[in-house]
Amino acid sequence: MFDGWLETLGGGERQVLAAAGALREIGLVTVVSHRSIEWSSVTERAGVDLDGIEYRRVAERPHLGVEDLGSNCQLFVNGTHHSLVRGEGVPSVRFVYFPARLPEWQIRVVGGWVRRLGLAIGAAQESTGWYGSEHNGAGRYRQSDGIGHIAVRAGSQVRFWLSAMGTDSRAYTITSTHGETLVQGEAGEAGDFSPSPWTSVPDDDGVIVKSDACVSPASGESRLLGVALGSIEERRGPLRSGFQRLTRRIAPPLGAWSADNIAERYRQALASYDVVTPNSHYTAAWLKRRWEITGPVIEPPVITGSKNVRGKDPLIVSIGRFFAGGHNKKHLEMVYAFRQLCAAGLVGWRLALVGGVGQRSSDTAYLEQVQDAAHGMPIDILPDADEQLVSDLRMRASIGWHAAGYGESKHRHPERFEHFGMAVAELMAAGAVPVVYDGGGLREIVEHGHSGFRWRSLDELSRWTLGLIRNGRERELIGSRAQERASTWSLSLYQGRMLKLASQLIEEKSATKTVG
After folding, report:
1. Is 299 a member of any domain?
2. Quick check: 309 pLDDT over 60?
């Protein structure tokens, strides 16, 4: 089981751990991720039985394969969001929470043209062992994992501008692919790219830039990092030298569009799995539309709480991370709606907005903006609340709000809507009545007028909420229906589906191998 973001313990990570708990029935399960984790803490927070499951850390590298994550495994399950790891060689399953978007057409067309031109003239270009492009002022660079392969024709003379961006060691060696040392040197200090000696390429297999590599957890990194490449120069051929000047110095974005090729790698990775399982029909539709990949929908598990929906507090709860842009949870809009309810005479009720906080400065600024908007109102802003407090809020909540997707275009930015709606489903499991924006995966889990309400304007949000506040009997009835609806995604049902899927896949692949 592989999840590169396990330490976040979000909805996708809980799904991976729930699957791991189920697959113990068919063999020893190892969960793999990129960071050092206190496994006992994970097992306590996961909400599922993980007894007997092992954890192993593998440093992040740009071209990891199944053999790097779990050699001789019987089944490989990848639950990493937007992963580029391929699933060939063993029976394999890929979880898709929402598919990556295609790059803009200009990047696809121009990047492809530049890449084909470089290949046609034999220009030196990064191959394996390099991460995606990063910014360095106006320029760009690519980090290596300590073994960065450069594809280049035999007879070429090249030199590389190198910097120790992610490692303390500046020493490097440029070798042939057969291990012959060609040149040695020292890269520039972090941010300072120094040229290597000119190197004559002995054969068409290219050359390898080797350096000491390390992981620096203190800097928040999980990647194995060696020296970084800022530019390539070539001589012996005006076409190739001109190509390098154009893509490395004159117009660096052209080089990035050409070299990264992330879209094609993502497509190939998805297609390499035996089974791809989207987490909702909404996700499945966009997976097919963007990448022409289909697979069985398996909704994530929801760990249900108490069946008692009585004794609830006059409390509205919304659970979602505080961060700016992208898949924003629209806290400001909910604060505005609640302010309007209070202005219309609502008393005795509170709104609680709870969730983690993004790591960027813009995320902190967004949280402060929400706090300022809620000042003086019966609104509780609870950033980075612990699991016990979040669980307590779910059990006390009479109503659950969710506004992700409001004001967004479902055609241009479908990823900004809820893909499934785990936070809402967990509130439903605790007996809260969901009042949610009518879009994305939430349309599948909330049956309007039966197990909750869906809205398209803030006026509708206020109207449905006020109706529930005024009618306690209806609120209790719909809360019970919401709880019943949430049982559709119970942990036991999810684990049964995963066990059946995995067992059938292993059996089918074994039979195919025997016949072959």
Report:
1. no
2. no
Average pLDDT, stretch 345-367?
92
Q: What are phi and psi of 258, to 5 degrees?
A: -75, -45
Residue owning tokens 């059990």 = 395
Predicted model pTM: 0.90
Nearest partner of 199 among 210, 187, 207, judged by Cα: 207
CATH code at 442? 3.40.50.2000
- Whether the per-residue pLDDT at 225 is higher than 90: the answer is yes
The CATH number given to whatever domain includes residue 232 is 2.60.120
Q: Are strands 315-319 and 399-402 parallel, antiparallel or unpaired?
A: parallel
The rounded distance, in Å, linking the Cα atoms of 90 and 77 is: 10
Question: What's the pLDDT tens digit per position in 382-435?
Answer: 999 988 899 999 999 999 999 999 999 999 999 999 999 999 999 999 999 999
Strand partners, 399: 316, 433
Q: What mean pLDDT is predicted for residues 117-125?
A: 89
Structure tokens at 61: 């590298």
Nearest to 513 by CA among 59, 91, 159: 91
Are residues 127 and 11 both part of a single domain? no
Q: How many CB atoms lie within 10 A of CB 12?
A: 24
Contacts of residue 374, defined as CB under 8 A and 6 or more positions apart, other chains included, come to 335, 353, 381
In a domain, residue 494? The reply is no
Phi and psi angles of residue 149, each rounded to the nearest 5 degrees, phi first: -85, 135
Residue 53 is assigned to a structural domain of this protein: yes
Q: Is residue 310 one of the residues assigned to a domain? A: no
Rounded Cα gap, residues 175 and 200, in angstroms? 10
Mean pLDDT of 328-351: 96
| Packed helices 491-515 and 11-23: angle between N→C axes, nearest 10 degrees | 60
Per-residue tokens: 338: 């609640």
- At 446, list the tokens: 């909330």
Pairing outcome for strands 207-211 and 54-57: unpaired
How far apart are alpha carbons 22 and 20 in whole angstroms?
Answer: 5
Closest alpha carbon to 129 in 152, 151, 150, 145: 145
CA distance 124 to 87: 29
Query: Which pLDDT belongs to residue 219?
Result: 67
Q: Residue 406 phi/psi, 5° resolution?
A: -65, 130
The residue out of 241, 260, 279 marking a domain boundary is 260
The count of residues in the chain is: 516
Least confident of 172-186, 248-262, 268-282, 447-461: 248-262
In the predicted model, what is the mean pLDDT of residues 73-92? 94
**To which residue do tokens 């605790």 refer?**
430
User: Domain count of the chain?
Assistant: 3
Domain containing 334 equals 315-489
Pairwise CA distance, residues 499 & 504, whole Å: 8
